[in-house]
């Protein structure tokens, strides 16, 4: 049973515009959320994270928003660049486990010039 | 350079022929994990290890074995591979949150396995 859901398999955005990637989760015990970015033929790389005690975390062009009541988080990329084209995975963990991440299926982002 | 390495990167084998995929990290991380990535299924955890000689099953452990005899190494063993184990495998390592202040896992480059 998928506890972390990314319902959009793909997203296409024009360069310079905002990309919004969404993620929903079902386990109310999750208290730490991460976004990973993956290019073809490479392993996932950490992008940004947020603890459940916050509702927003920003790092340069990337911002993650967390809505605990809706069990929803989103990743905003502003402005989007062609180099952002990759698969983005949402992940969550419970109880500060540090070793057991539950991943979504991923969203493939294409940023067109 | 801090990294997680996996070998081999690509492997084609036949059903039933035992194989081992090695994983090594040079960051002195306590935690290590194996994941498999399949189309439409995302990343699923196979096994994890919290420290030397401490391992446990993840979500999809059937058909796999692991060992953690040294802190830096976490090999994945397929005793009798089957075609449904054809997948892209990733090793990852991390530190306990109370040490690192984050749940971030660091991933290796992946091993693409094909079982004929």
Task: Note down, in words, how this protein is organized.
The complex is a heterodimer of chains A (113) and B (116). Chain A has 113 residues and is mainly β. Chain A contains no helices and 11 strands. In chain A, strands 2, 4, 5, 9, 10 and 11 form a 6-stranded mixed beta sheet that branches. In chain A, strand 9 and strand 10 form a beta hairpin. The radius of gyration of chain A is 13 Å and the shape is globular. In chain B, strands 2, 4, 5, 6, 9, 10 and 11 form a 7-stranded mixed beta sheet that branches. A 4-stranded antiparallel beta sheet of chain B has the order 1-3-8-7, with no helix packed on it. Chain B contains 1 helix and 11 strands; from the N terminus they run E-E-E-E-E-E-E-E-E-H-E-E. Chain B is mainly β and 116 residues long. Chain B is globular and about 45 Å long. At the A-B interface, strand 4, strand 5 and strand 9 of A face strand 4, strand 5, strand 9, helix 1 and strand 10 of B.
CA radius of gyration of chain A = 13 Å
Helix proportion of chain A: under 10%
**Helix count, DSSP H or I runs of 4 or more residues of chain B:** 1
Shape of chain A: globular
Q: Give the distance, in angstroms, between the N- and C-terminal Cα atoms of chain A.
A: 38 Å
Hey, which two chains have the biggest interface? A-B, 24 and 32 residues
So how many helices of chain A?
0
Oligomer: heterodimer
Mean pLDDT across every amino acid position of chain B: 92
Strand content of chain A: over 45%
Biggest β-sheet of chain B, characterized? 7 strands, mixed
Shape of chain B: globular
Report low-confidence residues of chain B grouped into runs of 5 or more: none
The total beta strand count of chain A reads 11
| Euclidean distance between termini CA atoms of chain B | 36 Å
The major sheet of chain A is characterized as: 6 strands, mixed
Provide the succession of SSEs of chain A.
EEEEEEEEEEE
From the alpha carbons, calculate the radius of gyration of chain B and give it in angstroms: 14 Å
